[in-house]
Amino acid sequence: MATTQNMRYIRAVINRNKLSEYIFGIVGLLSMLVGIITLFALIFDLFSDGLPRLSWEFFTSFPSRRAANAGILSAWVGSILVMLVTASAAIPIGIASGIYLEEYARKNWVADFIEINVTNLAGVPSIIYGLLALGLFVYGLNLGSSIVTAGLTLALLVLPVVIVTTRESLRAIPNSIREAAYATGASKWQMIWDHVLPYATGSILTGIIVALARAIGETAPLVTIGALNFIAFLPDSPIKSEFPFISFAWLSSAFTVIPIQMFDWVSRPQEAFQANAAAAGIVLITMTLAMNAVAIYLRYRLRKTIKW
């Protein structure tokens, strides 16, 4: 009799747990659907407003006081050049810092202090980095409101993300790989370069793309350092026809980027400028998706190479 009652009690508990699990699954699904439906509604509204405005002239025209003649030539060129400086500064420094903190630094209170501060820096509002860059790069180093200042500002913004991603990717590699490398006589750097990094590169690359995708949409720090809303010229070309065929004059040029151009158009009351802002938003989303697509492809190729 007691055994039968115990069995009934166990079944009741199991049924309650299954019901709770089912309800939680339904709530989670509904929450996910709310976010997805909202996102698709915003994207649909953006495309419905901005898609008719997209044309070759829109990409090859400078901003204008007339909405029909306005384009994003200086904005998308500026975004590419700023992101080039950001990637050139943030990626090598962030990966090198992550490797040092994870593989070389001693595990003591100093390393813990650095890790806590790096993690906290990843959550600092972007406007703080703009104020820091204003004092350090614009006034301290006299770089002015230039492309190099914007790139270094965004590099500071995404650097903690790259460092944390690199550390977590290296930490996920089993220690057996390191021990096997040491067993074959490899040095510490050979172990990292030839054995650990190839397995961690996919995850590191994903973190880098996520960081750069955040940087390409930032506005507040660039406004703080003096980015312009209206530019009717392009920076000097990085490539020249004369020797040495490379020019760095473009680093000191004034700039604007797509988010700032969108902000300028959105702040205007004319409906035509709102359509221009929506079209620029489509371009920005496309650039971000393209970056993610490249990251997914490279990660696939790297994992396929390691597998074989």
UniProtKB/TrEMBL annotation:
It is found in: Cell membrane. The keyword Membrane applies. Keywords: Cell membrane, Membrane, Transmembrane, Transmembrane helix, Transport. Residues 76-295 form the ABC transmembrane type-1 domain. Pfam families: BPD_transp_1 (PF00528). The chain crosses the membrane at residues 21-47, 67-100, 121-141, 147-166, 196-213, 219-236, 243-263, 275-298. It is a multi-pass membrane protein. Belongs to the binding-protein-dependent transport system permease family. CysTW subfamily. PANTHER family: PHOSPHATE TRANSPORT SYSTEM PERMEASE PROTEIN PSTA (PTHR43470:SF5), PHOSPHATE TRANSPORT SYSTEM PERMEASE PROTEIN PSTA-RELATED (PTHR43470). This is Phosphate transport system permease protein PstA. It comes from Calothrix parietina FACHB-288.
